[in-house]
Amino acid sequence: MTSDTVPLIDFAKFDDGSVEERRRIGKQVVDAMTHVGFLYIINHGISQQDQERMFQWSETFFKLSEEQKSKCSHPENGAHHRGWSHVGREKVVQMVFDKSQIEELRKKPDVKESFDMGNEENKELANFWPDQDDIPAFKEYCLYYYKLCTVLSKKVLRAIALGMGLDEEFLTSYHTKSNNQLRLLHYPPTSTADLKTGKSERIAAHTDFGTFTMLLQDQCGGLQVESPHDKGHFISAPCIPGSLVINTGDFLMRWSNDKLKSTLHRVTAPPIDSQTGMSKVRYSIPYFVAADRDELVDALPGTFTEENPKKYPPITSGDYLAMRLNATYT
């Protein structure tokens, strides 16, 4: 891959295609993750109608009052990544763990609010839900969409395994508990002056923590990906209706001994309303895929040799994610 574009991969033949077709799709995924770290997928099994309904529920939730949303507030413990986080609660930091440095970075808050939920059947991390009377059926649809994403995540894990020449179920065997996270994000209108002067930010350049992320984004735009051929230069990854954007996470990059690339990306200011001087509202819905918390992982077979030894010691997914999340919510 030589062009500065995010590749698009059609998953239509992955479910019922031949072994050769499934392996071809897997190799396309691995090639994109190796050289770009980002890809679009289409014909993946989650209908555009279901995607649009999830956006409608997200908008309804964020229109609740602060008092209503505070009934499901994110706990102080950053590693318990569930519930509602008000604007400025979270600050995305890139591999910074020193508390004084994090406090300095937090002086420029991320202008966004979020709601996070995980597998309701996995009791390791309890979910926090708004009051049923405040937003009836919200919980039920979130759980429905979460299950759709879980099914698709297993498909992507199988594609990656096939593309790397591994047994098809090698990676799914480390993701049996579906210890994943669905996040609803709302970027409210923000002053142009604050964004230009750096008083506030959308989301600064960062990488994601886990195995990979599946992102549903609206038509507002703003997602940018660092060019694989020009460090520091970011290219746009606009919405393609019906598609999902997938990007490699830091944990998978480490797991693959740095073969698969976890790429910096950011959210910039969306279009400005010339009459108000405020940015346009933006919604996005990422689904973060993570390995089972207690699984100890080492470099994937085929990613290391005597000439290219293992770069990292073994680590559990739980320990790695807790380290990264605690820095984000310090």
From TrEMBL:
PROSITE patterns: FE2OG_OXY. Keywords: Iron, Metal-binding, Oxidoreductase. One of its GO terms (molecular function) is metal ion binding. GO terms for biological process: small molecule biosynthetic process. InterPro entries: DIOX_N, IPNS-like_FE2OG_OXY, IPNS-like_sf, Iron_ascorbate_oxido_reductase, Oxoglu/Fe-dep_dioxygenase_dom. Residues 178-291 form the Fe2OG dioxygenase domain. The keyword Signal does not apply. Belongs to the iron/ascorbate-dependent oxidoreductase family. This is Fe2OG dioxygenase domain-containing protein. It comes from Ogataea philodendri. The lineage of its organism: Eukaryota, Fungi, Dikarya, Ascomycota, Saccharomycotina.
